[in-house]
Amino acid sequence: MRDGELTWGPLDRAGDRDAVAALAERCHAADGGMPEVTTSRFAADGVTTTGGRTATGVLVAAAAVRPLSPGAAFIGLVDPEHRGRGAGAALLDWGIGTAGPDLTVETEALTAEGERLFASRGLRQVFAEDVMRVDLAADPPAAPLPADLVLHEWTPDLAVRFFTAYEAAFRERPGYPGWPAERWVAWTAGDDEFRPQWSLLAAGPGGDAGFVTSSEGWIVQVGVVPSWRGRGVGGALVTEALRRMRAEGAGHALLDVHVDNPAAHLYRRLGFTTLGRRAKFRR
Description:
alpha+beta; Aminopeptidase; N-acetyltransferase domain-containing protein; about 280 residues; acyltransferase; YpeA/RimI_acetyltransf; Acyl_CoA_acyltransferase; transferase
């Protein structure tokens, strides 16, 4: 691999865990995003890794290729103080050679330099979303629910109605998976960190208007059925979920939103700021 200043070799899954975590913290402090997500990729089953160390043994570049079905996924890290010396290109070329043709390149903190590097290898962006955070030290801003709607907490009996609202809100969105109700409900409520008391359905006399689902520290999904859009339903749902989180001691909340989703403007009005941009690239 290039960058003759570094010594390259596979990472030890257990022994290098702390070094990878420290590198991820340095990278994400500069670029945004969530270092714990990046670090988890290096511990995945079947992962292949490489790293570059300085003469004093400090890990300043690392990459992981993990199997998917089909294909494989690559993620890489270069210390901000060591960029511009070819380490990023060396890692990406190693990933392309290791993974083979069916490769997805992932990043939890997309930068302009990263975009240029990916483009230089013929990779195109196929997915991007912003990870956003709001501080809950103070009450969320007021966002009243329309007067003819009421909120219901998630219960098993209401799960299908939540799904119906989800389907109506998302089926025209890019990337909609088309799951049946049973799969979506299991994915939502089967998470150990799912919080039914923070997951709400907005119901009215003419039918359900929207929903929010939440887990520990996260607004997971928010959807408003088309006939109710533009009437404050989404803001009211998110605000009430945040209020309940704060009442139970949460200090902040996170969410992710597709870059083409206009709901990002709503989240900014509610106090969310962008931590970083998560993206995927393919040939």
